[in-house]
Amino acid sequence: MSDSVDRSTKISLLKEPVVKRVCDALDKSSDRGWRRLGEIVGGERRLRVSSNDMEMCSLKVLELEGSPSRMLLRLMGERGCTTGHLMDYLVTLGNTEAVQCLKTSALQILIQPQSLALISGHNLRLSCHAVGKSPVQYQWFKRHEEVPNCSSPDLVISPVHLKDAGFYICRVNCGDTFEFSKWAQVDVLNVTRSYAPGQSYHSLEGRLKLAIQPQSQQLHVGEALQLECGAVGRPIPRYQWHRNGVPILNGTKRKLMIPHVMLDHHGRYRCEISSSSERMWTNEVDVVIGCSELFLNSVPEQLYATDKVALLIGNLSYRNHPQLKAPMVDVYDLTNLLRQLNFKVVSLLDLTESEMRNAVDEFLLLLHKGVYGLLYYAGHGYENYGNSFMVPVDAPNPYRSANCLCVQSILKLMQEKETDLNVFLLDMCRKRNFHDDSTPNVVLRVTANIVFGYATCQDAEAFELSSSGFTNGVFVKFLKKRLLDNEKITVVLDRVAEDMGQFDATKGKQALEIRSSLSERRALTDPIQPCDSADLAHADSRQWAKAHELPESMSLDFDCGAQIKLGFAAEFSNVLVIYTHIVKKPEDMSFCQAHVTDFSQELDVDPKEMNRETPEETGIYLLSSSLPQHCLYTRLSSLQKLREELVFTVCLQVTFPAMDDDPVHWTKSINIGKPLIARLDLHRAMRRNSCLQTCLMPHSPSHSPCHSPRPEHCLHLHHGLYQAQDHSRLSPLHHAYEHPQGAVGGSGDSYYENLSRCHTASLSSSPGRPSIPIEASDDINELQTVFINSLQLQQP
C-alpha cells in the first residue's frame, strides 16, 4: 500500500478531515505557513495565484473561524491543483506536519454505518468495514456504553425492540491506531405491519414506507397535544410537521408535542416525510381545541372567531391590458402568513369575470355567523363614487362595471352571513373610470365590523417599480412584516402605513389608506372557537378541503423493469406541479427518463415549459425550494378551467447499449380526477343573483369613521416592485408592465430597470375622452431618481 494518497486526485475532492488538518498546520505556522505557500504557488503559471488572491485570503482572519489557508487551497483547487502538486509544494515549503496530513493513514474506514428506521420485531444490521496495515478489530457502542458481544464489522440485533432505539458508533483498532465511525441513529417503530415477522430490513432498504399515520384529536385548552407519525427506510427519514399548510418551527421529530395547547393551536396538521431521494405526506388531521367554562371565565376580554376564511386573488396575465408581476408573489406570501393564523385560504391567479364571481360564491359558502372573512385582491382596478371594482383578466378594452366585480356588493353579501369581521385589502388603482356612466347604488347595513385597507389613496393611480425578477409590491412588502402581530387589525394597518411612509422610494408618492367601522378589538390573530353546530363546522371544513386535495403520489412500474415516482404539489389553489423521478433503473439501460404529456387543451399548457430539469424553467419560482431534486417538473395553471377529470400520459423513454442506444418508449395513462380548485367547477355559468354585478346606491364604509391619511399624503403609485427579500434564484423575466406610450426609464442592466404604471385600462379611442385611469407622467422621472438615490444611500 502506498504511503500517500493518489497524486492525481484534485484537492477539491479531498475529504474534509484531511483538508482541516492541512489548513490547521498552515494557519499556525508563521514562516512555513499559507503566505509562503502562496508565494511558491504564485510562481507557477498554471495556477496564477495573484496578490489580489492573497489579499482575499488574508481577509478571512476577520471572519469567525475563518481560515486563510482554506481559502488559498480552494483557489488552487478551482484552478486544477492536484494532490501531487500540493504535496510537492508542501515539501518545498518544508512544512512536514502538513505533508504528513496528506499521507495515507494506517487505518481507513471504507464503509460507514447508516442511520435507519425500522419496525419492532425486524432484524437490525449496522455495518462498518475498515482496512489497515495490520489486522483490525471492531467494538460497537450505544451512546457511551459498549454493546456486549459486538466485536465484528456487523452489528446484528434480531429481533429489534423499542429499547434498542438510539445512537450507535463503532471503534476500529489497528495496532496502536484507532478511528471511530460516524454515528448512526436507529429509530424503532412500534406498529403492526404486513411484513413477515423476523424479516431482514435489507429487503426494505432505499424505500420510504409510511408506517404510522397521525390521528385527529379534540382537546381542551391546557391539555397536551401529541401527534405521531412514522416511516421506515434507510437512510433514516426526516420529518417536518405543518399546520394549515405552514411548517411548524422546531416541528422536525416523529412526535409533535405541545404540552399546553391554546385556542390558536386549532387547525389541520400533517407531516412531510423525506429522505435523500423521496418525499411523502401523511394524512391531514383535524385538531379541535375547545374551551372549558373555567377558561372562558378567566379571559373575558378575549374575542374569538367561529372560523377564519380568506380569498386571495391575483390577476396578472391580462388579455387586453398591461400585464403585472407582483400579484403572484404577494398572493403566495400572504397565503403562507394567513395559514399561520389558522385561516382557511383559497389563493387563485388569473381569473376571468365568471371565474371571479364563482370563486366569490364559493367563498361566501364558507361564511356564517361569527366567522372572520378576508378578501385580498391584487391587479387592475378602479373606483367610482366610493365603490371599488376589481378587473378580471378577460375584461374588454375599455371596461365598465358590468365587466368587473364590485367590492361593496361582495361586502353586502358578507353582511348577510352575520360575520364578525370583514377585511378587504385592495392592492389596485382607484382612479375614476370615465367610461363607466353607471350610478353606484349599493345599500349596506350599518355594522361595526368592516375594515378596508387600500394600497393607494382615493382617485389615485398606481405604479410598479419593475425589476428583472419577482418581488413583492410595496403594500405587501410592509404588510407581511406586520400581519402576524397580535394587535387590532386597524392598529396593524396603521403601522403598515407608518412603515410605508418611511420608504424613501415612495415617500410622498404612495400611502396606505384605511377606512374602518370596527368598534371591537378584533385581530387576525384571534383564536378560533368553533360554533355550537359541529355539523356546520365540519361541512365548512369539508367544503374548503375540496379545493385543496392533492392527488396521492404514485409509484409506476414498467415492463422494462424501471420504476418511477409521480409526485404532486400545489403552488396556488389553481396551480398544480407534477414531477417525475426515476426510482429504479435496470443495469442494462444506458438512459432512462420519464415525462408527462397529452394534457387537456383546456389547460393551455406550453410544451416548451413542460418536463424541465429545474422548477424555474417551467415557471415554478416560488415553490422550487420545497420540491424534491433530480426530477422533471411540469406546472399546470388555470385548473379552474378544467371541465373533466385530469387525464394525461406518463411516457418512459429508455435506451439500451445492446440496441445501439435507439430510444424505446413505454406509456401509462394516468387519471387523477379533478385536483385542487377544479373540484369546484368555477368555469360554470355565472349565477347573476349571487355575486352582484353592479352597485346600486352610494352607501358604503367610505362614510364610516376613517383612519386615512390627510389628502396631501395620498398615493399616486401602485404595486411598486421592490426587492424585499432575496429572489436571486428566480429567473429574470421581462418588465412588469409595457407602457403603451413608450418605455419609461432606462433599459440597462441595473437591478431596478423600469418604473411603470399599473394601468386599469388602455387609452380611449375617443379623442375627446380621457383614458382610464387618467395618467400623469410628471412624477415618474422624479420617483425613479428618488428610488435610485435611496439605493445609493444604503451602500456602505
The tally of helices reads 14
Structural class category: alpha+beta
Q: Name the helicity range.
A: 10-25%
Beta fraction: 25-35%
Q: Which spans of ≥5 residues are poorly predicted at pLDDT below 50? A: 193-205, 692-796
The N- and C-terminal alpha carbons lie at a distance of: 56 Å
The overall pLDDT, averaged over residues, is 79
| Secondary structure: number of strands | 38
Task: Return Rg in Å.
Answer: 32 Å
Shape annotation? globular
Multimerization status: single chain
Largest sheet: 6 strands, mixed
Domain Caspase family p20: 306-433
Protein name: MALT paracaspase 1
Domain Ig-like: 107-181, 197-288
GO biological process, one term: proteolysis
Commentary on this structure:
The protein is of the alpha+beta class and 796 residues long. 19% of the residues lie in helices and 26% in strands. Helix 2 packs across helix 5. The protein is globular, with a radius of gyration of 32 Å. The model is unreliable at 193-205 and 692-796 (pLDDT under 50). InterPro entries: Caspase-like_dom_sf, Caspase-related_regulators, DEATH-like_dom_sf, Ig-like_dom, Ig-like_dom_sf, Ig-like_fold, Ig_sub, Ig_sub2. Residues 107-181, 197-288 form the Ig-like domain. This is MALT paracaspase 1.
